[in-house]
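Example 274, ligand N15.
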Amino acid sequence: MSEGEWNLADFEIGKRIGEGKFGKVYLAREKQSGYVVALKVIFKAKLDKYRYHAQIRREIEIQRRLNHPNVLRLFAWFHDEERVFLVLEYAARGELYELLNSLSHFSEKRAATYIASLARTLAYCHEKHVIHRDIKPENLLLDIEGRLKLADFGWAVQSNAKRHTMCGTMDYLAPEMLEKRAHDHAVDNWTLGILCYEFLYGAPPFEAADENDTKRRIVQVDLKFPSTHCVSVEAKDLIRKLLVKDSSKRLSIQEILKHPWILRNADPSGSCSE
Ligand code: N15
């Protein structure tokens, strides 16, 4: 697909494959090339003017600046009177979240492979001064080869200074965001710890009956490793070194990639076939 002016008539629309905050996602095929994409349809009426301009435009700008094999591509966008259409990369194996649900939890090999590939992707984003801030299984997709694709930069920010704003889903939020303190790219490293735990145990570590309890558990770093799951000492070591309250003491991305658990378990190809 090349750059240019696109419109809805250029696409054959297939089944619905997703539903997000702002719109529905359909499988679609560009008629001339036969190229299969994910077409996201956002009704302008569902966005007030401020959000439309501020949020969507910002997301488009962020996505445009990122060109990495593990970042879901935004190929083009266009709009008509009522709708905005985003032409997105199609990830054939769908949501990581679904896979985690169906397997209950991942093997150490699979978990380490995803964590390593996320760490490399975040290193790239951070280099481009983008903090994702909303990494969670729902925002992770898998391509035809089982490689991870980071999608949805709905909460991402371009980081030139430390930020003070509050947003996102509780379970994945770092203490400094919950406490509305200044935060930087280390919030994404915290989230890697949360995800690593969730991949291995099937549920995030600070899950609780209500949001206040979750928040309390996060700010106290009330971390427990249930013995019902057989998780290696090295995996727990990595999780403990990421879920550290003081953001300056968390493992860096480079240290994650050199951690013995990653070196021992992660598949360098980034896809897991077991
Ligand atoms: C404003 C703009 C630049 C934001 C760009 N990012 C997004 O819109 C984030 N986003 C990505 N929102 C939805 C998607 C999305 C892309 C959702 C699902 C898919 C997608 N590509 N491929 C899929 C997909 N493939 C599937 C295969 C099987 C079952 C479900 C699937 N979903």
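Summary: The first strand starts at residue 11 and ends at 19.
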